[in-house]
């Protein structure tokens, strides 16, 4: 039996703002949309067409912010030009935390989810040992 990671799901309060963040800041592209009653599921993929997707789960009747609690779960994106990404994110004003000693930084999306940005070389499994 084989398992393959398919997607991560984030519940979002404002679909337009979330789509704008993920497409403009992280260059993701909409791959598909599913309507289940009033719920809208939007699937986003990265520029390299990896099989792993991000699902934005939107319930229009849920107007309040989602309670993220103390859960340290986050998404991570590896970039080929870390310095260019860092400068773009500084200019966009979406950096939540910079960790220069580790060569990474974190963004906060419109719902407060953390997004780790790391250089591609940090992502390589062969370099992790």
Describe the model:
The chain is α/β, with parallel strands linked by helices and 129 residues long. It folds into two domains: 1-61, 2,3-Dihydroxybiphenyl 1,2-Dioxygenase, domain 1 (Roll), CATH 3.10.180.10; 72-129, Signal recognition particle alu RNA binding heterodimer, srp9/1, CATH 3.30.720. It has helices at 15-25, 82-92, 120-123, 125-128, and strands spanning 7-12, 29-36, 39-45, 53-58, 75-79, 95-99, 104-108, 114-119. A four-stranded mixed beta sheet has the order 1-4-3-2, covered by helices on one side. Strands 5-8-7-6 form a four-stranded mixed beta sheet. The protein starts with 6 loop residues before the first strand and ends with a helix.
Question: Which key phrases capture this entry?
Answer:
129 residues; alpha/beta; 2,3-Dihydroxybiphenyl 1,2-Dioxygenase, domain 1; Signal recognition particle alu RNA binding heterodimer, srp9/1; 2 domains; 4-stranded mixed β-sheet; 37% strand; globular; disordered C terminus
